[in-house]
């Protein structure tokens, strides 16, 4: 199934967490699920922290990109953008906060839910809940900021 990440242009599709063109990355897909957003991911055994449990850095990374993907979905909705080819709004993480409530068991599918708690013209706050085996293991909050198409390119790139 496609996610918002499939509507980023190629030069914004290299992200380790969500870039569809990063063969070493997580390649997550984020979608609406009613009024909330959802991303699913199955950790591999090499994502281990201690045997049986998922490494926290991976979980933070999933929340990070679920947050930016959710922000892009919310901005597209707010601006009445019909997703097609590479016209998705692109957001970067300004702030990421993660709380580990319980060790996250490895081996089953992780589900991350997102609630859009604040949205302005350029900024979206997303509250995230990460579940494994139907157990709430991690919560997070992402503040994502909309960036222009030339974000990250050298200022004089068009002179070369
Ligand atoms: C290197 C990146 C490559 C990504 C290419 C693009 C790819 C897109 C598609 C793929 C998605 C992948 C994304 C994955 C997720 C990452 O891993 S992204 C990598 C980690 N993040 C970064 O490197 C971002 C570094 N920071 C920045 O570039 C700049 O600080 C930002 C975030 C663009 C904001 O700068 P700015 O545009 O000058 O922002 P500014 O006008 O001051 O603030 C805008 C709003 O955000 C708020 N804000 C800004 N910073 C913060 C903060 N730290 N805490 C709270 N609020 C804040 C401000 O208060 C303001 O709010 P309002 O006043 O409007 O209510």
Polypeptide structure, described:
- There is one protein chain.
- This protein has 160 residues and is an alpha+beta fold.
- It has one domain: Hotdog Thioesterase (Thiol Ester Dehydrase, Chain A), CATH 3.10.129.
- It has 1 helix and 6 strands, in the order E-E-H-E-E-E-E.
- The protein has one helix spanning 56-78, and strands at residues 30-33, 36-41, 91-100, 110-119, 123-132, 135-146.
- Strands 1-2-4-5-6-3 form a 6-stranded antiparallel sheet, covered by helices on one side.
- Its EC number is 3.1.2.2.
Bound molecules: Palmitoyl-CoA
Radius of gyration: 16 Å
The portion of residues forming beta strands comes to 25-35%
- Helix % is 10-25%
Provide the CATH superfamily. Hotdog Thioesterase
Question: What is the chain-wise order of helices and strands?
Answer: EEHEEEE
- The CATH class label is Alpha Beta
Compute the average pLDDT: 95
Give the termini separation.
Answer: 39 Å
What name does CATH use for the topology? Thiol Ester Dehydrase, Chain A
Tell me the domain tally: 1
- Report the principal-axis shape: globular
CATH architecture: Roll
E-strand count? 6
Strand order of the largest sheet: 1-2-4-5-6-3
Summarize the biggest pleated sheet: 6 strands, antiparallel
Task: Summarize the entry for a quick read.
Belongs to the THEM4/THEM5 thioesterase family. The protein has 160 residues and is of the alpha+beta class. Helices cover 14% and strands 32% of the residues.
